[in-house]
Amino acid sequence: MIVVSWNCQGLGQALTKRTLKDLCYKLRPSIVFLMETKQRTWVLERLRRQLGFFGGEYVEPDGRSGGLAIWWEEGMDIHFFEKTKFFIDGVCREKQQDTWHFTFVHGPSRRAERPSFWREFTRIHRSQVIPWLVLGDLNLLTSSGDCQHAGSSNSFFLLNELMAQGHLVDLGFKGSPYTWTNGREGDANVQRRLDRALANSAWQNLFPSTQVLHELRLGSDHCPLVLSTDAIPKPKGKRFRYEMQWELQDGFTEVIQQGWHKVTSGSSLFQLAKKLQSCKQTLKDWSKQHRSHKSSDVQFLLNELALLQQQPMDANNSRKQREIIQHIDKIWSEDEAYWFQRSRVNWLKFGDRNSSFFHAIASRRRSRNHIVKLKDDMGRWLQQPADIEQHIFHTFQNLYSEHNASNYTDILNLIQPTVTDEMNSKLCATVTMKEVEQATFQLGAFKSPGPDGFPGVFYHRNWNLVRTHIFTAISHFFEHGYMFKELNCTNIVLVPIVKNPEMISQYRPISLCNFSYKIIAKILANRLKGLLDCLISPLQSAFVPGRMIQDNILVAHEAFHSLKLRRNKGCPYMAVKLDIRKAYDSVRWSFLQDVLRAFGFCERWVQWIMQCVTTVSYSLIVNGKSMPLFYPKRGLRQGDPLLPYLYLFVSNVLSRMFNEAERQRYISGFQIKRGCPKISHLLFADDTLVFGKATYQEAAQILEILRQYAVASGQQVNFSKSAIIFSNNTPFCRRTEICAQFAIRSDSSVSKLQGWKRALLSQAGREVLIKAVVLAMPSYAMACFKFPVRICSLINKEIRAFWWGQQEQEKRISWIPWTKMVTSKWHGGLGFKDLECFDLALLARQAWRLINHPNALWAQVLKAIHFPDVDFVNAQEGSNPSWAWKSLLKGRNLLQHGLGWNIGSGESVNVWSDAWVPMLPSFRILSPAPPDKENLKLHVILLCGITLRVGISLLKLLTLLLPLFPWPHSHLLLGLQPFGRAFGS
């Protein structure tokens, strides 16, 4: 079924009529909805007959404006409930299919008319229990992304509130991002997305393959919307995938054993591949004989149960009811397992009867990832499946092709061998069963499978059956150092990076590796990650155990704050933020191999790594269809457990190049304050921030380093996504000159809580969504910055509305206050996080890390800037503090409530003012100090010539303490444990 919606701005013009006729002849739509017709009924009826539609319904225009029309083809059974000048409401049924509700809308453009319109619209959605589609020009926006220039935040609220209350979700679109323009030129041009399609979950379940296209704008200032319910055809030759629901079938274990125990010969890796292949074929044959249950099966059983419950209850009746109930529960469990596996929801546990939610998630993902149109390199739209597939295939074939590399020996000479013989010995140790098992269960059970179709859950659930053969095959790889290529086949799926992608560059290629390969890669990754802190530059804060990406964020924030404070005095500085184009996909294999050798890794380790990297073959999955295999010549796979760690060694070379340039004074770096370490660059995984003087010479040096690095490694900088930030004392002409030199520009969680999720999730499911997803979203920022109270209150408000939101047709009552909900479950609450308290807790954690890691780069920078002469516990805010520093002090203040001395010798601890008594809530002595004992140190009491490591008797301790302390507190000291020893009983 195809539905066309168009605000045609009057059907009097010849071009508008021709555009409409072309659309109808080309698409053969089932329904056409027209707005702003500005024509009488008899004119529209004549046009309808010319276009060959079976029926029509109209709303007359109001003078020279307005007017609605709806046409439909034969076979569409349509009944109307209500017609106004703003909408046409009714139900539709096509060829004996399920009935669905439609509301075709032309929202008022004048604000004065909106309240009455939305009241009428709210009345409609309150009665919706069947599939419901809302389509048309709503004349409202959902976010600033819907307009070229900032829109009204009030209009955002209106439409978002309507969608939440009606449990509606935006069906998205393909094509141009805006549907309306004012037609003006230059800065006066305004474009907005006013037309859209909304639907509830029942409509999405009825039509899971729906796509919405924005057609070309012609004959009106609005572009037509084309909604197609059959836009995603079922792919031919369905790929095998292990199904969780099979595990609920009787006799399934025997089927697995039958397939696995078939005798094979050859190397261990070859035998593993053949056993998986045998299991696949056995499961395929078995699944054909055990069809999946349908909803009609459940309905039949429910009818049977209803009849039995109306009959007298005897033993036979009771037995039949139990059997039917067990059968229904089994069918529902199978259905939930099926959709859970496809939903990719890793924060919600299977078994909570959230089948409708899992179904909606899977359907939306399939619709979002389906590619119906795409721009080629020349900007032309491709819509034919064959053209799209060919364009994607050639793009990725070129992306992974090797280009000639020049000699980069000088760059490799910058790497000093840092891997010791002891490290190499640990890396190349004999693999053990414990190591294999640990790696297997560290990998996600429900991640998408590779080409063999077996996800982690197959290995986890059948580990006792497969463990011996898996261990033997993996041991064979580590002994002989060669990968069986069939195990290293990889599917590539394309995931949109932006909301509505137009070009192939707006998709991220995700590699789906075989789980058997991922076990090998995970073992190698586990061995390597423990050494990274010794091998990787401290200027890299990502992927290294013990480091956090927030560390470098804090340093960068302090640098930007200093750049902002620089006025007329001193030398101007700049910070260049670099974005690497296709960073992981463009790594040159020969360069990676040479870098690993330069670091000092032994040949055996290098061979293992390069076998994992170079024996790969790719098959692109485009709209569910597998493309022919091709063999890449470069690139690291996103989805490979080794990826982040291998990329660290590649990017570490760039770090060494900048360090060498700074040592030779080609670039100067940036010293935020006297005594502070000079910083030439910071690394954030594949992003780089470079600091230097804002001069033409240093800009040229940075460019030359980037050029040499690109030639050697394949890592090209994407200057269109890079940016430069200048200090305030940089002259404007110099900024312009440097920006031109780089050819880049100069810079100076609520969406997760949508109404459809509220409607589909159980109460327990909503709790997990709030805790695992929504409250985790701001964690990165909160670890560095204190959020304004207003922002925390707004997010808390949205969470409360989501939790107590509408269920079915009733609005739920807030039975307990929010203050109770944020208390722990042990104290009768729900364990939600109050964002303001959560923010302070994260800042306190960062403050604690600052105390415990004083030699880290970020700690040295903060100390030099803010507390050079004191420790962090006694640091003050100072003048012109940064937001991050003020935030850390708030975390420090919270931390101080729980800080106490861990007693050693006691020489630094003041008996009266310091926190050192662990049995007291405040850790401090509450009694006032005697007049002559204000500065008494703890070691005077504890030592008295006796060595604590040998111990001290309880009687001796009491003899020393009782004369000094008031009696009510003396007994509290018995819990003190110097050097971890108790005092006795």
UniProtKB/TrEMBL annotation:
<dbReference type="GO" id="GO:0003824">
    <property type="term" value="F:catalytic activity"/>
</dbReference>
<dbReference type="InterPro" id="IPR043502">
    <property type="entry name" value="DNA/RNA_pol_sf"/>
</dbReference>
<dbReference type="InterPro" id="IPR005135">
    <property type="entry name" value="Endo/exonuclease/phosphatase"/>
</dbReference>
<dbReference type="InterPro" id="IPR052343">
    <property type="entry name" value="Retrotransposon-Effector_Assoc"/>
</dbReference>
<dbReference type="Pfam" id="PF03372">
    <property type="entry name" value="Exo_endo_phos"/>
</dbReference>
<protein>
    <recommendedName>
        <fullName>Reverse transcriptase domain-containing protein</fullName>
    </recommendedName>
</protein>
<dbReference type="InterPro" id="IPR000477">
    <property type="entry name" value="RT_dom"/>
</dbReference>
<dbReference type="Pfam" id="PF00078">
    <property type="entry name" value="RVT_1"/>
</dbReference>
<feature type="domain" description="Reverse transcriptase">
    <location>
        <begin position="476"/>
        <end position="761"/>
    </location>
</feature>
<dbReference type="InterPro" id="IPR036691">
    <property type="entry name" value="Endo/exonu/phosph_ase_sf"/>
</dbReference>
